[in-house]
Structures are given as C-alpha cells and as structure tokens.
C-alpha cells in the first residue's frame, strides 16, 4: 500500500522560538534540532525525537512538505530523513518535483486564478490603502500569487481583519491570520489540489494530512485522515470534521505527536 503524507510545516512540524510552547521545567525540556537558518541565525526547530520520527516516516510513506512558504523560503529548511521527491509551495502554486517547479502545474494554477479571481494588483492596492502603518510592518507578495502583511499583532484591530475577510470573499479571495502575518490568498490556490495531483502521480492508496491554519482546512478535508494541533487558527475556531483528529498537544510537542500519528496510520496493527 502506498501512503502519502502531506503536512504543513510552520507550527505543525517545525516551530520558531516563539511558537515552541515549552511549558515544563527547563531541566525537562526536550532536546531541539535546528532545521532552518536565516541570515546566519537559527530560526526553526523540531525536537530530536520528532526528527527521528520524520526519518522513519520518510522510509514508510511518500512524505510531501506542504507549505504557504515561497520556494526560496522553503529551501531554507533542512528536514531530517530522505529528501522529499515532491513538495508543495506557495499554498499549491508550485509543485516541486526533485526540487524543481513543475511548469505545467504552475501554468494550470495561474490560468485558473486569472479566470476565477480578482487580480493580485487589486488586492495589493486595497491592502496598501487600508492597512494602518501604525501596526503594519511589511507588505509582501509571494511568487506573484498572493499577498501578506507582517503586523504588530497586539495593535491589530480585530474589526479590520473581519472587514478585509468580507471584502476578499466578494472577490474570490480568502484571508488567514497566522501569528504576525495576515495572508490574502485566491480561493482556487489550494494545498488540496496539489496534494491530489501528487496522489495521482504516486498512485497513493491512503492520504494523510496535518495543519494548524485556515489555509490547511482544505488539505485536511481532502485527505483520508487528518490531524490538527491544539494551537492555531483551526484550534481557536474549534474546527473539526469527519476523519479529523483534534490533538490536545500544543507547540513543538504537537509536532512530535502528529508524526507518531502518521506512523501509526502508515503502519496499522495487523
């Protein structure tokens, strides 16, 4: 049986210092492995136990890192285990095959966005007009596919986010607030579509997925089984669905438990 595992990365399998959620005594904290360096500084971690589990998973299933990160941001990550043959970047806008973007897949995605959604330029213009510089730190465009803001979360007006979500909905876009980033993403730009394509190419008999944000919901629903951690947008909304397991673990401990669940599902007891 071919098992495909499509997992979100940030705050699902890998964690920044601020997202680790280490709550026990310092002397009992898990040993951490740095898996990402940015500008010569360590940025993202997983526990050493999670690293071992991911290596085991790479031998037991087709593991597909699945992220909203751009290709450049994804390539900063050095995950343990076998190099993935497939990876999904830019929320499904790029399907990497042996590290290179599949041009046919990208062309199909961009054609669909042009046909079904308001253009990126319109969304960028709206963000620039309405986002207050008092709480906006950066405006960014990812892969010419979607836009996001880096904000001061404690200063961000909740009502502004709600109004943005309504404005975007009417134009075929969706909004997701993840930590200090607000994403505006075209609705057809999904991780699930790219996962289905990898499942088709690999002949997967069973698909497993995990994620923590609203941008992961479609991925979880598309898989045969899915898991979400006890933190993130999905947990905050108490989101669930048939086939979805809501884990109680939070922070880097959730990353460990998600990998255990993947391995149990990939190797069910006889």
UniProtKB/TrEMBL annotation:
Transmembrane intervals: none
Write down what this protein is called. HAD family hydrolase
Q: A GO molecular function for this record?
A: hydrolase activity
Q: Cross-referenced SUPFAM superfamilies, in alphabetical order?
A: HAD-like
Which species is this record about?
Answer: Streptomyces incanus
- Provide the alphabetized UniProt keywords: Hydrolase
């Amino acid at each position: 049986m071919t098992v495909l595992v499509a997992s979100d990365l940030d705050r699902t399998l890998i964690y920044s210092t601020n997202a680790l959620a280490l709550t026990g005594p310092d002397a009992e904290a898990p040993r951490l492995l740095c898996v990402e360096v940015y500008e010569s500084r360590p940025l993202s971690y997983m526990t050493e136990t999670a690293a071992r589990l991911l290596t085991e998973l790479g031998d037991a299933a087709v593991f597909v890192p699945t992220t909203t990160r751009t290709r450049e941001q994804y390539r900063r990550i050095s995950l343990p285990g076998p190099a993935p043959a497939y990876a999904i970047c830019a929320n499904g806008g790029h399907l990497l095959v042996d590290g290179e973007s599949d041009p046919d897949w990208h062309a199909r995605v961009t054609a669909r966005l042009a046909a079904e959604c308001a253009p990126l330029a319109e969304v960028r213009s709206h963000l620039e007009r309405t986002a207050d510089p008092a709480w906006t730190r950066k405006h960014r465009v990812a892969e010419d596919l979607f836009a996001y803001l880096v904000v001061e979360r404690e200063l961000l007006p909740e009502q502004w986010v709600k109004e943005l979500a309504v404005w975007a909905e009417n134009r075929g876009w969706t909004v997701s607030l993840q930590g200090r980033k607000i994403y505006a993403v075209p609705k057809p730009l999904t991780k699930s579509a790219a996962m289905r394509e990898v499942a088709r190419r690999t002949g997967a008999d069973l698909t497993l997925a995990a994620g923590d944000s609203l941008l992961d919901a479609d991925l979880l629903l598309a898989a045969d089984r899915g898991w979400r951690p006890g933190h993130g947008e999905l947990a905050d909304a108490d989101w669930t669905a048939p086939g979805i397991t809501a884990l109680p673990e939070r922070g880097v401990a959730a990353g460990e438990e998600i990998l255990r669940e993947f391995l149990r599902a990939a190797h069910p007891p006889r």
